[in-house]
């Protein structure tokens, strides 16, 4: 059965979209609709160009690429930090592009977790991404503390969302550090970071956030909110490429704190090559670097972040909300009779950049979507995640995805697949 909604409405909205020209900046597969930008953003032509420029610097200059390249490698992390800073609401000095998400979390916890007296516990939550929990457990064990006792996880009431009141109630006198997501990776709920930071500090607790599912998708104000630290990946909404170097934020009031894990790239730039065995740390977030930056993984970010500098995060957010709101309207109209449940917040202030459609046959449905050249994302046990990305998805893409989903359900095409995830979900 055809959709009751009209394709013409989607086309009209695309014609009025001021971000529509940026779609041409990306490599889109003809005949395919990409809805997985919350896991891996697509390659832009500018990201490809800056990667090739750094390759050319290596080819033409060899070691002189560190200082004389088109994008000199020695201060490339600092250049990218300045481009990241407006996206997270920090100064360039408070941001560094370095490491990976989990390595940066280890670095920050090694620095800011200082168990003392009765404050020996870390507070996280039950819905956070597993890698964060693994890292926190590891940091506790390194200090001779049992994670079963010293890692507290605020529980969800419904398996989808977290209530800030429950998190605040868990901020007891035993908590030394709090690490929470900015956006829940399954449901897409945005936590009230400002409120949680204020409540943590009122109790003398440091707090940090995992921004993997929010940086590049929603505006932040980490500095103004007083967030102690944050960390994120740059390959999802920021389109920096698979495994590209991550980012971190350290509030300026913590400048001068010796990082828990030190390495020579955390040195003050003018002192790094003194080769002194007494380290002179950088006087800003640069101190939290450890080893030599992965230049060829940094290089695509130059071009990728130029797009965000042009467009601005507020415009990205405005279109993202319009896309997800339109998709929810179509799901309500067309897919609820087939057992789909919208498992993400409907409120604009609480919804990130992806939708979570819950269905008992989610794994099979994702495989059926791929057979129609729609790229979704599956999260166990029952979630189809769909992320229409502001810079390269159209309203017509949203219309088409819902139309295909309706066909899949009408014809029970999902039944030809096993209801189990692939190795990489």
From TrEMBL:
<comment type="similarity">
    <text>Belongs to the kynureninase family.</text>
</comment>
<feature type="binding site">
    <location>
        <position position="213"/>
    </location>
    <ligand>
        <name>pyridoxal 5'-phosphate</name>
    </ligand>
</feature>
<feature type="binding site">
    <location>
        <position position="292"/>
    </location>
    <ligand>
        <name>pyridoxal 5'-phosphate</name>
    </ligand>
</feature>
<keyword id="KW-0378">Hydrolase</keyword>
<dbReference type="Pfam" id="PF22580">
    <property type="entry name" value="KYNU_C"/>
</dbReference>
<dbReference type="InterPro" id="IPR010111">
    <property type="entry name" value="Kynureninase"/>
</dbReference>
<comment type="function">
    <text>Catalyzes the cleavage of L-kynurenine (L-Kyn) and L-3-hydroxykynurenine (L-3OHKyn) into anthranilic acid (AA) and 3-hydroxyanthranilic acid (3-OHAA), respectively.</text>
</comment>
<feature type="binding site">
    <location>
        <position position="235"/>
    </location>
    <ligand>
        <name>pyridoxal 5'-phosphate</name>
    </ligand>
</feature>
<keyword id="KW-0663">Pyridoxal phosphate</keyword>
<comment type="subunit">
    <text>Homodimer.</text>
</comment>
<feature type="binding site">
    <location>
        <position position="101"/>
    </location>
    <ligand>
        <name>pyridoxal 5'-phosphate</name>
    </ligand>
</feature>
<feature type="binding site">
    <location>
        <position position="264"/>
    </location>
    <ligand>
        <name>pyridoxal 5'-phosphate</name>
    </ligand>
</feature>
<feature type="binding site">
    <location>
        <begin position="129"/>
        <end position="132"/>
    </location>
    <ligand>
        <name>pyridoxal 5'-phosphate</name>
    </ligand>
</feature>
<feature type="modified residue" description="N6-(pyridoxal phosphate)lysine">
    <location>
        <position position="236"/>
    </location>
</feature>
<comment type="pathway">
    <text>Cofactor biosynthesis; NAD(+) biosynthesis; quinolinate from L-kynurenine: step 2/3.</text>
</comment>
<dbReference type="InterPro" id="IPR015421">
    <property type="entry name" value="PyrdxlP-dep_Trfase_major"/>
</dbReference>
<dbReference type="InterPro" id="IPR015422">
    <property type="entry name" value="PyrdxlP-dep_Trfase_small"/>
</dbReference>
<keyword id="KW-0662">Pyridine nucleotide biosynthesis</keyword>
<feature type="binding site">
    <location>
        <position position="102"/>
    </location>
    <ligand>
        <name>pyridoxal 5'-phosphate</name>
    </ligand>
</feature>
<feature type="binding site">
    <location>
        <position position="210"/>
    </location>
    <ligand>
        <name>pyridoxal 5'-phosphate</name>
    </ligand>
</feature>
<comment type="pathway">
    <text>Amino-acid degradation; L-kynurenine degradation; L-alanine and anthranilate from L-kynurenine: step 1/1.</text>
</comment>
<protein>
    <recommendedName>
        <fullName>Kynureninase</fullName>
        <ecNumber>3.7.1.3</ecNumber>
    </recommendedName>
</protein>
<dbReference type="InterPro" id="IPR015424">
    <property type="entry name" value="PyrdxlP-dep_Trfase"/>
</dbReference>
């Amino acid at each position: 059965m055809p959709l009751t909604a009209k394709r013409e409405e989607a086309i009209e909205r695309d014609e009025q979209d001021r971000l529509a020209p940026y779609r041409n900046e990306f490599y889109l597969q003809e005949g395919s609709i990409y809805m997985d930008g919350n896991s891996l953003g697509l390659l832009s032509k500018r990201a490809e160009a800056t990667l090739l420029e750094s390759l050319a610097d290596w080819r033409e200059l060899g070691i002189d690429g560190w200082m004389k390249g088109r994008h000199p490698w020695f201060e490339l992390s600092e250049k990218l930090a300045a481009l990241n800073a407006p996206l997270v609401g920090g100064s360039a000095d408070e941001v560094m592009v370095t490491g990976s998400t989990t390595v940066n979390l280890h670095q920050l916890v090694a620095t800011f977790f200082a168990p003392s007296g009765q404050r020996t516990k870390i507070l996280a939550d039950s819905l956070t991404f597993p890698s964060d929990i693994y890292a926190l457990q590891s940091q506790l064990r390194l200090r001779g503390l049992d994670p079963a006792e010293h890692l507290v996880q605020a529980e969800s009431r419904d398996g989808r969302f977290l209530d800030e009141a429950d998190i605040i109630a868990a901020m007891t006198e035993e908590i030394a550090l709090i690490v929470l997501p900015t956006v829940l990776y399954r449901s897409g709920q945005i936590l009230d970071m400002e409120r949680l930071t204020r409540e943590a500090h009122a109790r003398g607790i440091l707090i940090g956030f995992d921004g993997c599912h929010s940086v590049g998708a929603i505006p932040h104000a980490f500095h103004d909110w007083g967030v102690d630290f944050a960390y994120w990946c740059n390959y999802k909404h920021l389109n920096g490429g698979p495994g590209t170097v991550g980012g971190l934020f350290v509030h300026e009031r913590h400048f001068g704190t010796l990082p828990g894990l030190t390495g020579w790239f955390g040195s003050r730039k003018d002192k790094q090559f003194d080769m002194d065995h007494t380290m002179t740390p950088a006087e800003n977030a640069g101190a939290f670097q450890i080893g030599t930056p992965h230049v060829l993984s940094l290089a695509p970010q130059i071009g990728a972040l130029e797009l965000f500098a042009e467009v601005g995060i507020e415009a990205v957010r405005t279109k993202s909300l319009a896309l997800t709101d339109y998709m929810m309207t179509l799901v309500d109209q067309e897919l609820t009779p087939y057992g789909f449940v919208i498992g993400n917040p409907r409120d604009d202030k609480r919804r990130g950049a992806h939708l979570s459609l819950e269905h008992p046959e989610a794994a099979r449905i994702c495989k059926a979507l791929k057979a129609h050249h729609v790229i979704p994302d599956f999260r166990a046990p029952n979630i189809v995640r769909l992320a229409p990305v502001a810079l390269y998805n159209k309203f017509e893409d949203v219309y088409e995805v819902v139309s295909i989903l309706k066909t899949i359900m009408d014809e029970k095409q999902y039944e030809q697949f096993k209801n189990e995830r692939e190795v990489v979900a």
